[in-house]
Amino acid sequence: MTNYISADLERLDLEKFMREALREADEAGKAGEYPIGAILMLDGEIIARGRARHGELKSQLSHAELNALLNGGEKLWTEYKRGILFSTVEPCPMCLGAVVMADVPHIIYGLHDVVVQSKITVETNPYVRRHIQSYYGGVLEDESATVIRKYNPRILKYMQTGTS
After folding, report:
1. Strands 106-111 and 83-89: what pairing?
2. Are 120 and 112 within 8 A, CB to CB?
3. What is the rounded distance in angstroms from the CA atom of residue 111 to the CA atom of residue 97?
4. What is the pTM of this model?
5. Beta carbons within 10 angstroms of residue 42's beta carbon
6. How far apart are the first and last CA of the chain?
7. 3-state secondary structure of 35
8. Residues 77-126: pLDDT tens digits?
9. What is residue 1's predicted lDDT score, i.e. its pLDDT?
10. What is the phi/psi pair of residue 21, to 5°?
C-alpha cells in the first residue's frame, strides 16, 4: 500500500509533469537552495510552481511543495478535488499536512526519502488517509537524485541513508 495511484491518473504522463518539477529543483539549486521542486497540476495544466526558497525568504517553512500550494490561488481554492502535487522528493510531514489541509488528493513524487517516513503517516493516520487518494513515488527518481547530487550531495546521502 506504500505506492498506490488512483485509476484516474494511470493514463497521465507522470514523467512529463515530473520534468517540470525537476526544472524547479534545478532553479532552486542554482540559487543556492535545497534542490527540490514542485508543481501543482489541474486537468493537465500546471497551475502553480514551487521550489525551495529557505535562504531567499529566511524561512525554514519555505519548502517547494508548500510554495506550490501557496501559489495555487483561485484555481486551487475552487477546484482542489482534481489537484495533483508533483514533488521531486517525498514530502516531509509539514508538506504532507499542507497537502491534506489544501484537500489535494494526489501526491506524485520522485525520490524516496528514508528519513521523513511520510508514507507511514499516509498508511496509518486515518485522517490523512481519508484525504489522499494517490501516494505514488519513484517517478524519475534517478533524475531527482542527480539534481540533488549536483548541488548538495550531502543532503542526498542523508535522504537515501539517514546518515550524514
Report:
1. parallel
2. no
3. 19
4. 0.95
5. 19
6. 29
7. coil
8. 999 999 999 999 999 999 999 999 999 999 999 999 999 989 999 999 99
9. 45
10. -65, -40
